[in-house]
């Protein structure tokens, strides 16, 4: 058991992600004033030990220190609470509440898709968490099923959003040194992929993808490579699967709008999802069904979305044209759809703090050994989200000096290519690709389970929190009646009863919109090369038919023998028919007599010819 700081002991690893390893750990002594939650000796907690690359990066350590109050004050019933932050030598760690339950990615893989009602209610709770964090100016930026833990809450499962702030911690000018892409291609919003300004709308996009995946078992955009997936986020329209009721599809479609300003606010999303859940069941009243059909009216966008600092956002809600020098993001994966110079142009004027989705390289100067003092919001109540503090507009990292990306490497790979390669590598971890297809939940058909096996499964989800319940929720019913009602609602959309035809978005050729703009006469200092075409598979050589497909032992030898016998028979027949053998046999001559006759005839013939001359 390894100590972390003086207060915690790591016991066993619970899981490993792209940014670190999560451990089950035990509290040795109360953390006291230096943590948001003091804890008790012997208490079990979860500790995320950040990767060495992060811990060794001085920028990340500074960010860690600066952002502690943001992380520690973020409390909500659907957010995994961060209790303490530890910096110790080359170790950075977040101490969290231990959640007893699987993450949503694993749950989905093991149990197949949810019913529309269950998916809507679960996503509504995630939207509640987002609404609270957005109100506090915090954008998650890596929303995906793996970051939703399902807490066992007295037999019911309660979704808890985790990894808040990890993307923020990974932000670092040092990121431009390794260009490793962080974020999961399947869930990345178009504006993030393009390096455009990001707001809380990126989380709404992530929630839309997650909701789609909950009801279908796979995210809407898939591809053989990360680049292919990202292109789809930018240009492909999601298609409505047959199992998704129309009101739910309205919500999903609005969350997946390419233009962030057209996506609903988290608060409206939560409300709309509850209206949909109430209205799509078999026992929905006419008014509830009517309300669900009119859900589009509830999906108003956020007039003042929380801004992701350092992504070039101008005034809140305004989205400057992509590709402008001011909003270049050095970590973007794809070139902007418009605008001449790429983000790596040395004159692009990028903001180093805009490194939104990249891990830093190792830096020699590790942070100091210390246990952090408590943040300002350390004593916030467990269900309370504190009002926005100084964080909202001011980005503490702006004080950091910009890092020169360095001169263009003429012969090395372009950072953009390196990013893509890293993104592909990372997909191993995020299980978007390079998985055994039989094990990849995103590729296989959803598991269809007969209803009796898990009749109560969707009921396990905790009902929405009382304060968040909209006025138009179902009228109170006796518990039993309510349960039956829920069962009916959920069974109406149980996957086995529906003709499920998973739809893969069509593969698209590289979009012309990402083509390199014509080169100006003056060379760009660092014009990005044309996108590397996705590696094409070599056409398979035609399959060789096996001579012995049944693999019968000795068949090859037998075939040779048979062939020889046929040749011998044919040869014998030819000799018999076309030689005087028959006559010899008729005359009773043996072979040697016949042969001697031949020789004699030949000698006579030669003699007659020579005498005639
Ligand atoms: N607070 C927690 N309590 C219990 N288990 C946790 C907790 N946080 C994470 N885990 C477990 O640890 C695993 C790894 O978590 P982590 O957040 O590092 O993974 P990830 O989300 O796939 O990574 P990343 O977001 O960095 O790509 C999770 O799948 C989850 O099962």
UniProtKB/TrEMBL annotation:
CDD domains: STKc_PknB_like (cd14014). Keywords: ATP-binding, Kinase, Membrane, Nucleotide-binding, Serine/threonine-protein kinase, Transferase, Transmembrane, Transmembrane helix. Residues 518-533 have a biased composition (Pro residues). One of its GO terms (molecular function) is protein serine/threonine kinase activity. It comes from the Bacteria. Residues 308-548 are annotated as: Disordered. It holds the Pfam family Pkinase. Coiled coil: none annotated. It is an enzyme of class 2 (transferase). The chain crosses the membrane at residues 552-576. Gene3D superfamilies: Transferase(Phosphotransferase) domain 1. This is non-specific serine/threonine protein kinase.
């Amino acid at each position: 058991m390894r100590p972390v700081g003086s207060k915690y002991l790591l016991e066993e690893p619970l899981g490993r992600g792209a940014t670190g390893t999560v451990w089950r750990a035990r509290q040795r002594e109360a953390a006291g004033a230096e943590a948001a939650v003091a804890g008790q000796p012997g208490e079990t907690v979860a500790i995320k030990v950040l990767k060495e690359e992060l811990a060794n990066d001085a920028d990340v350590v500074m960010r860690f220190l600066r952002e502690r109050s943001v992380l520690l004050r973020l409390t909500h019933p659907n957010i995994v609470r961060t209790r303490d932050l530890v910096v110790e030598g080359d170790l950075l760690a977040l101490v969290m509440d231990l959640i007893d339950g699987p993450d949503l990615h694993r749950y989905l893989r093991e149990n197949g898709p949810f019913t529309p009602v269950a998916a809507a209610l679960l996503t509504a709770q995630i939207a509640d968490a987002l609404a609270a964090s957005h109100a506090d100016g915090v954008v998650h930026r890596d929303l995906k099923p793996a970051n939703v833990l399902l807490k066992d809450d007295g037999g019911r499962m309660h979704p808890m959003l985790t990894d808040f702030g990890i993307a923020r911690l990974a932000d670092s000018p040092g990121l431009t040194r390794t260009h490793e892409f962080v974020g999961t291609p399947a869930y990345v919003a178009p504006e993030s992929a393009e390096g455009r300004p990001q707001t809380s709308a990126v989380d709404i996009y992530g929630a839309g993808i997650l909701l789609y995946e909950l009801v279908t078992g796979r995210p809407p955009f898939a591809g053989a490579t990360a680049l292919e997936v990202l292109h789809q986020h930018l240009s492909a329209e999601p298609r409505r699967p047959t199992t998704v009721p129309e009101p739910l599809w309205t919500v999903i479609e609005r969350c997946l709008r390419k233009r962030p300003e057209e996506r609903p606010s988290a608060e409206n999303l939560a409300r709309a999802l509850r209206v949909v859940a109430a209205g799509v069941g078999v026992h929905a009243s006419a008014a509830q069904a009517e309300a669900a059909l009119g859900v589009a009216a509830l999906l108003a966008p956020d007039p003042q979305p929380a801004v992701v600092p350092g992504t070039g956002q101008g005034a809140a809600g305004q989205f400057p044209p992509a590709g402008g020098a001011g909003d270049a993001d050095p970590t973007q994966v794809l070139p902007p759809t418009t605008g001449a110079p790429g983000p790596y142009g040395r004159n692009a004027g990028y903001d180093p703090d805009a490194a939104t989705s990249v891990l830093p390289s190792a830096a020699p100067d590790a942070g100091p050994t210390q246990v952090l003092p408590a943040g300002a919001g350390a004593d916030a109540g467990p269900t309370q989200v504190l009002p926005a503090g100084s964080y909202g507009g001011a980005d503490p990292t702006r004080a950091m000096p910009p890092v020169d990306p360095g001169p263009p490497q003429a012969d090395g790979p372009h950072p953009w290519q390196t990013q893509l390669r890293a993104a592909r590598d990372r997909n191993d971890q995020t299980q978007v690709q390079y998985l055994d297809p039989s094990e990849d939940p995103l590729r296989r058909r959803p598991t269809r389970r007969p209803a009796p096996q898990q009749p109560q499964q969707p009921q396990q989800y905790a009902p929405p929190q009382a304060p968040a319940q909209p006025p138009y929720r179902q009228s109170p019913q006796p518990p039993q009646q309510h349960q039956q009602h829920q069962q009916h609602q959920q069974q109406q959309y149980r996957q086995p009863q529906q003709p499920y035809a998973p739809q893969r978005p069509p593969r698209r050729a590289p979009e012309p919109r990402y083509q390199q703009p014509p080169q100006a006469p003056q060379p760009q200092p660092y014009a990005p090369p044309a996108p590397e075409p996705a590696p094409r598979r070599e056409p398979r050589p035609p399959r060789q038919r096996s001579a012995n497909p049944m693999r019968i032992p000795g068949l090859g030898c037998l075939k040779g023998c048979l062939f020889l016998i046929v040749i011998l028979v044919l040869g014998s027949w030819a000799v018999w028919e076309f030689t005087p053998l028959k006559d010899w046999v008729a005359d009773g001559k043996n072979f040697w007599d016949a042969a001697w006759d031949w020789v004699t005839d030949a000698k006579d013939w030669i003699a007659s010819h020579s005498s005639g001359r």
